[in-house]
Amino acid sequence: ERLAEADCAILDKTGTLTEGRPVLIPEGQETQALRAAAGMARASRHPLAKALVRACPDAPLVEGTREIPGQGLEAGTACLGSPAFCDVAGVSDGMVLVYRASADAAPVIFRFADRLRADAPQAVADLKALGLPVELLSGDGPGAVAAAAMAAGIETWKAEADPYAKAAHIESLKEAGRKPLMVGDGINAAAALAAAHVAASPAGATDLAQTTADIVLQREGLAVLPDAIRIARRAQILARQNIGFALAYNVIAVPAAIAGLVTPLIEAL
């Protein structure tokens, strides 16, 4: 019922609009720094953290690493995460992780690239055709978010949104009388998924996202989401028709039976 009522769609980017398998762009990072950062990244299921581990698969887990959702990882004096989390300015553009061995150590920048899902532009067009304005809401930098939005045909987007900002945006839409459908796959989107009028999570999403969402898409890609909305709306129409027919024949049959115009058997038939 809530899916049939949804009147706008909010999409997360990495792992939802994109394939969720970002690749590290080699930019001459020192092997020691890459290994240390990948060791911390093993403690997280964030797509960028997993990409860092794939770039240095033999890096051992750094014991005592603690994850702060939407920001990054800490292990003693070392930190790995967003530029703001690591207190680094001027590198927020794009899909970026920053590593610092300590507060006074020079930052190491890791940049990533991710591909748009092949069916994303058509899925966005289908959602619009169903009357749902589509927005892109991401924690990534403006450059990466703007590029993904343009490629998918999304005019409205917001970058550098942490988990609290994502949930607050959903709440603001609800306060304005909207019934948002939130689609996300990661820990950072869980609060927004929980706050939404109805929520969906793609195949391959984190356990937390799938548990929080109302719908889990069992096939890769977003093409099944517009199909699910069509099915939900059709089911609502059929349910209302069923109730309408039930009321109509009871209005006719019950008084006829009470008046003795028909037998109970005929009334039941």
How are the elements arranged and paired?
Elements: H1 2-5, E1 8-11, H2 13-17, E2 23-25, H3 31-41, H4 47-55, E3 66-68, E4 72-75, E5 78-81, E6 95-100, E7 108-113, H5 120-129, E8 134-137, H6 142-152, E9 156-158, H7 163-175, E10 180-183, H8 190-195, E11 198-201, H9 207-212, E12 215-216, H10 224-258, H11 264-268
Helix pairs in contact: 3-4
Description of the structure:
With 269 residues, this protein is an alpha/beta fold. The chain is 43% helix and 17% strand. It has eleven helices and twelve strands. The protein has helices at residues 2-5, 13-17, 31-41, 47-55, 120-129, 142-152, 163-175, 190-195, 207-212, 224-258, 264-268; strands at residues 8-11, 23-25, 66-68, 72-75, 78-81, 95-100, 108-113, 134-137, 156-158, 180-183, 198-201, 215-216. Strands 9-8-1-10-11-12 form a six-stranded parallel beta sheet, sandwiched between helices. Helix 8 links the parallel strand 10 (180-183) and strand 11. Helix 3 (31-41) crosses helix 4. The protein starts with a helix and ends with a helix. The relative contact order is 0.15. The model has no long low-confidence stretch (mean pLDDT 90).
